[in-house]
Amino acid sequence: AILGLFLATTLQIGYSTDFLLGLFTSDAGTQAALSEILALIILAQPLNSIVFAADGILQGAEEFEFQAKSMALSGATTAIFFYSVQTFGSSDTLVNVWTALIVLQLMRGITSAVKILEKDGPIKLLPASSEPFR
Question: DSSP labels for 40-62?
């Protein structure tokens, strides 16, 4: 999460100084399109870092079957969200795609947190009444 916050802060500084827009291209149309989604990309960085860390925990615990099912659920949810937004909401496809990517990461984060924190999950949290290690 710290890396994500650092990246988001760095991207925000680059965005507010217009450094990032010029870094990618000098084309005004592309810069305008990028400026519409850059805030979404910046806000997504802390979430992405948490989800990627959770991926590492689950892969280290060899929870591959759970991750496959979690990704299927997350992907289906994101597809429904994207279809709904495209059909009934904004017609700005680029913004909708990036918003859907955030929804995908949010769903992945939720499903990973459920698995990681469940009683039989890969991380065993010590109960409050446990004895200290010997």
Answer: HHHHHHHHHHHHHHHHHHHHHTT
| Cα dist from 49 to 36, 90, 112, whole Å | 22, 28, 13
For helices 2-16 and 28-60, what crossing angle results, to 10°? Answer: 180
Residue type for 78, please?
A: T
- pLDDT at res. 24: 76
- Single out the residue of 75, 66, 73, 71 nearest to residue 121, CA to CA: 66
So what's the pLDDT on residue 102?
A: 96
**115, 63 contact by CB (below 8 A):** yes
Which residues of the chain, if any, have pLDDT below 70? Answer: 1, 124-134
User: Is 113:54 a contact under the CB 8 Å cutoff?
Assistant: yes
User: Max CA-CA distance within the chain?
Assistant: 65
